[in-house]
């Protein structure tokens, strides 16, 4: 037949993609330099030269070696390189068994969710949140439970998480540096979350109702994109953590689909979950991560991300918006600015901004009302060019300029 | 919690992978030249030079263009190149809208199954069959219904398919050239299948119970690996067909995960199914096919597959096994020989063959008893070196040599 649930997911428009398409139309009509597209999270910084050098080196290998199937969890050398890099940075002692190479961040989260959640269970997300989390949670047959972040700081509201936990809670997904707010969760915030989860786990053990701990899925595609803040290593704070990673942002390789899931193998829980991650990858049809880019990971695992351009964009944009009277959340990482919409109806503001060819994303699709996501992974000229429009809109909405 | 279904899929051993691991152990112990590993379908023919040339050309592009996200259905140029190539070969008139680029054959079949089957429905496979079909069918929530092929020719037993159709039948999966038998379904056989499906659809329409036609999923990773037989273009024979393709075998790129699904957009059915394919790709976590290899497809879509080496292996292996008294199915395509096990218990034969370091795959995991799959995508020396073992085993089992 035709699967109506899948049809609906294919037919429903992603607001972000829709704005991106509209931007491209307008660029064709009025010239690219007159359109200020802040919709997508496509890195504007090119992949480092080391990526090209790695690919060129790989091309000297026999093609049947280079392009052959890798083991399902990935090439041993790639998994070991990732583990070694983490150990150097976080004082951990991982081995290749702790790492499962994936077809990018979406595959990492999808496989991790299928591994730790069962149909009928619940997965908590911290709103605002990346909209695809809901899609993947529901595909795994679970229910997406939104818990709003602290409305001032956009840190995790730990008490609200505690209140949302039920016997059916399978996992909590966090995402730091955060998309869409740019916030990095502090160590104190994560430790408080860990205490809440540990207490819930202890309660379960005592009640003998549900002996399984709550999994923490830490989705970290923006880990390397920070402006000075510490991004704590979550498995060192909470035992039952699976880390989902991708090189889409850190090495600017979003089209190549390469990432990993880490599940620490020190515990029986970790060994069971990693086996379920492998099962999920198999069941969903992943086979193995792209072989050539597994070799890129081996060669480039310690190549630093180039955040200079994002940092400059951030400073210019924040400085100007502050002057014009906008309020926003100070971004510690990622390349998104979370701006309070001058209109309580963020969609109405975005509609009005279109007259100025200014294209942020309204917050509704992230599970929050009255905010704008401004993706500043764009050319510096886009930031500069957009400022008169931001200023004029501020004036129209009567914002108090500094 | 831990999803037990996913855990089980991760924990269960693939017989093929197990034999492959055993082969590698033995090679380390007794020397690679003394082990005759016929387990895997990993192409022994290297990717053509055109692949390397394409990658080198792509490396001259700006990295943010080369490695950026592509649209979810793929780069328009890649989709158009595939459509144009099919039109030249099959007299069709496809456009880019008929093609959805995927992360390899497994993704193609997984997405197609999720698009056309709903939980509680049934999907028919022709036994023997590629074992992962069952995994993907069950992940989509459907039931895998095995219909044995004709026991002499291993063509589709069309009457048996007709008998297996119920109101819950969502789809039939076929795979020609076939893994594991090497058989290519004839045009007559496919036309007979189409008649059966059309009749079932007409019956449904008349009964007004289930207005949806039965989908035919034609999985064709081996389309290019043939030895003279015609491989008919299935959508020209049966309207409600989705073709699943990959470049793993035709261009020897199994590790790079690149393929496509074709669903003809001429009908409302096709448009609905393609939208559901896009929804499935999104729900399962695929995002887009690897960008660099989408460009390889643009450049190499018409590069012929190098079947010379497989043809030589096939001739040597078939000639020798016939002389020793084995019977087998004449292979028209793919790189598998389907040999009648001299022992009715194929696993017992394989156990005995291990004493000679001879490693075929017993038929059980393909849904058939008493056969062996011999993957001849290996170096010519492996074939030559294995012949004394085949001969000795034939003698021990009392086969009548020619």
UniProtKB/TrEMBL annotation, chains A, B:
Gene3D superfamilies with a match to the protein in the record: Aspartate Aminotransferase, domain 1, Type I PLP-dependent aspartate aminotransferase-like (Major domain)
Pfam families per record: Aminotran_1_2 (PF00155)
Alphabetically ordered keywords of this record: Aminotransferase, Transferase
Domain Aminotransferase class I/classII large: 34-379
EC numbers for this chain: 2.6.1.-
Listed name of the protein: Aminotransferase
Entry cofactors: pyridoxal 5'-phosphate
PANTHER family, per database record: ASPARTATE AMINOTRANSFERASE YHDR-RELATED
